[in-house]
Amino acid sequence: MAIALPNLQEGLGATTIDAQWALTAYGVTFGGVLLLGGRLGDLYGRRRLLVCGMAVFAAGSLLAGLAPALPVLIAARALQGLGAAAAVPTALALIGSLYSPGPARTRALSLLTAMSAVGIISGLLLGGTITDLLGWRWVFLLMTAPAVVAAVAAPRTLPEARADEPPARSDVGGAVLVSAGLMAVLFGFTGMEHDGIAAVRTVAPLTVGVLLLVAFVMWERRAPQPLMRLGILRVRSLRAASLAVGANALAFTSIVYLETLYLRNALGYGALEAGLALLPLNVAALLISVTAARPLSRRSPRAALSVFFALIVAALLWLARAPSPAAYLSDILAPLIVLGVAVPSIYIIAIHEAVADIDPDERGLASGVFETSNHVFGGAIGIAVYATVLAMTTDNAHDAGGYRAAFLAAILLVAPLGLVAVLQARRKRAVTARPVPSGDRRR
């Protein structure tokens, strides 16, 4: 989508600032509704939410591809975000429900991780190609058919799974407060990227969002049948997984965002050259996702996270040198391969831990917490901070000094959050498989 943005802007006759809303609309609705989407899957059926989410995503993709004007496109992107927020956490929760701990769940989660890597590779390589050959509308239209296929196939291939005893009435107040609060916070971070830290568009929604989230916590403590049982945050493995995936997302965003800009602006790479330059990272990530899941599942989470976060910090320090000109093999390729090994390894460990000790009735909620951390840290906080540092440290996008400062900022974010995740992680992984508890009702 980001690659197609200049063509989209020209095709619809939009200004640069207005066109950015096509990115913001998706990010705000997706990140804001993830937690709610996961919990609704617990209560009303994870397969049902997966099907509904993919159907809504398909409808949003089709509408975006046919949009006659920018407001329609922005609404379509928000619709895509809502669909993704329903589908993403329920997909992870379904794996936790349908596979007991052990080799079967490890294979399923490794396949999920591998498909994420495939999505990243295809997005980076095909986004520009599709835009150049077919036009920006096909970036959306080509997503419609796979989403429809997934929505049609899920009821034929997956059993239903949900909480054993859904509540007699829905916690509408809690749903409104948490979704509005998260969306306001995300909107505030996008304001930081465009307008700066002290701008009204940044401070006002961030303040409103924090107040709404505080109100949500107070509401849930008094609600007779709360949307979110706050005690789930006391599950240590979920806390460690959410912190780890947040730190990991910050590191990955620094590559997708900062390194791409560094290659394009400071080193003068073309769009295709930059995509090919980053390809080794994605290939390494795919190979790790396919081959390393079982070995990692037998390691101590704390020890493994310690090693891989140390590798990430070392690779980011390497990239923070940001020489101009740069030797691709030594200055870029080597740290990218290190990151291509470390980033998916941490994600594999975290995604296993996220549902490891969760009651079957709350696996969707746990998946929502996990994915919200992933998106808020990587998609919102990371980009906002990196863009702000770039803007504060240089007036020239071609000056490599700004990228050095931004990569150092990435280290200052990743290192302490990763350290806390390591300290929260278990010293030993439970390796004994046990049957899927009867708390999940299936049909």
Structure, described:
With 443 residues, this protein is an all-alpha fold. The chain has three domains: 1-111 and 135-166, Up-down Bundle (Growth Hormone, Chain: A), CATH 1.20.1250.20; 171-226; 232-429, Growth Hormone, Chain: A (Up-down Bundle), CATH 1.20.1250.20. Helix content is 78%, strand content 1%. The protein has helices at residues 5-12, 16-19, 21-44, 46-66, 70-98, 103-134, 137-157, 172-195, 200-222, 236-266, 271-291, 293-297, 301-319, 328-354, 363-393, 400-424, and strands spanning 161-162, 441-442. Helix 3 runs parallel beside helix 5 (70-98) and helix 5 runs antiparallel to helix 6 (103-134). The longest helix has 32 residues, at 103-134.
> Domains counted in the coordinates: how many?
3
Specify the biggest β-sheet.
Answer: 2 strands, antiparallel
CATH architecture level-2 label of the largest domain: Up-down Bundle
Q: With helices defined by DSSP (H or I, 4 residues minimum), what is the helix count?
A: 16
Bulk shape: globular
CATH hierarchy, class of the largest domain = Mainly Alpha
Measured by DSSP, the beta-strand proportion falls in under 5%
Organism: Saccharothrix tamanrassetensis
Keywords: Cell membrane, Membrane, Transmembrane, Transmembrane helix, Transport
Subcellular location: Cell membrane
Protein name: EmrB/QacA subfamily drug resistance transporter
